[in-house]
Specification:
By secondary structure, the protein is mainly alpha-helical. The protein is built from 17 helices and three strands. The chain folds into three domains: 59 residues, Serine Threonine Protein Phosphatase 5, Tetratricopeptide repeat, CATH 1.25.40; 102 residues, no CATH class; 118 residues, Alpha Horseshoe (Serine Threonine Protein Phosphatase 5, Tetratricopeptide repeat).
């Protein structure tokens, strides 16, 4: 088997023939499946690569790396020479402008592969193609819809075959950018937040690395706030205060104050703003851009709010990469 793999890398066309025969005799062999996919990637055969990535996911649904590669491929918006010429445009001209703007991810036999949701870049397309922009957009719209339907079909099928919500998470994330309405996106994002919360809650029971404990608490606190569970968000921030100490907990105090504000608890809101003020040293203020003491209380809180929003954005970015 090792010899076949080595020869396959040197001659991928012949290699896939041997490996596919071997896989037909052992169709649960994940290593074989991955090797065949690797050879098709080397050959640049997109359709075969997609098919074998799907086989890998069927054998190993938890493979987040391959899932991300698969969704990227399914989501690519493809423009063909035939499409371009059918609307009266010159293929070489469209190709040259696409290359000039660094829009082309790959090219293969009269096809150009653009990144997912490329159709949404209407202003940039208009600038590049001028009077021909509407013709180009009509092609891209068609390609976008096809990519969307392929991605939605695969993600929904994947979800239906895998009941583990942590495995479903990446497929649900793949659906997010294709939701047609804000309400659909909000509902799906709320579902993702709840899954992420449950995952982090489980991990927190066994996590021992101090840095990971702190990171998980920050993400959990942000997720609790997004889901409207301000009481649990407060608990996470309080644990962060315990771990970091009062002098390193300015943001946590501000966050707790905003949670109490959402809960309608003015007494504790005021208390934690005061605790935040008490630890906001000149060095800390200079580092985080917080106004000095000669500013009013409302300005201090406004600056803290901006700092808080920055923290939450970092948490959001952390949540939604895996897929």
């Amino acid at each position: 088997m090792a010899l076949i793999l080595v020869e396959g890398k040197n001659n991928p066309q012949q290699g896939v023939v041997y490996l596919e025969k071997a896989f037909s005799l052992d169709d649960k062999n994940l290593e074989l499946c991955e090797s065949i996919a690797s050879l098709y990637k080397q050959l640049g055969d997109r359709n075969k690569l997609i098919a074998w990535y799907k086989k890998i996911m069927a054998l190993n649904p938890a493979d987040e790396f391959v899932f991300e590669l698969l969704v990227q491929l399914l989501g690519e918006e493809i423009v063909t020479k035939q499409q371009v010429e059918s609307v009266g445009l010159v293929w070489e001209d469209v190709l040259a402008k696409s290359r000039k703007n660094n829009w082309v991810k790959n090219e293969f036999e009269g096809q150009v592969f653009l990144e997912r949701n490329f159709y949404s870049r209407k202003e940039r397309i208009s600038e590049a193609f001028g009077a021909d922009a509407q013709k180009v957009l009509s092609i891209l719209k068609e390609s976008h819809e096809q990519a969307k339907q392929e991605t939605l079909a695969y993600c929904n099928d994947f979800i239906s075959k895998n009941s583990d919500e942590f495995v479903q998470f990446k497929a649900l994330s793949g659906l997010l950018c294709y939701m047609d309405s804000r309400q659909e996106r909000r509902e799906l994002q709320a579902r993702l937040n709840l899954i992420e919360i449950r995952r982090l809650e489980q991990e927190s029971l066994t996590e021992t690395d101090p840095e990971m404990v702190i990171l998980n608490l920050k993400i959990l606190a942000g997720d609790y706030r997004k889901s409207g569970d301000y009481k649990k968000a407060c608990e996470c921030y309080e644990k962060l205060v315990e771990l970091n100490g009062d002098n390193q907990s300015y943001l946590e105090f501000r966050n707790i104050a905003y949670c109490y504000k959402a809960l309608g608890d003015k007494k504790n809101e005021k208390l934690y703003h005061e605790r935040a003020d008490a630890v906001s040293t000149p060095d800390y203020k200079a580092k985080h851009g917080i106004p000095s003491d000669n500013k009013g209380s409302s300005e201090r809180k406004k600056a803290a709010s901006k700092d808080d929003e920055f923290l939450i954005r970092i948490d959001l970015d952390g949540n939604i990469t895996n897929t």
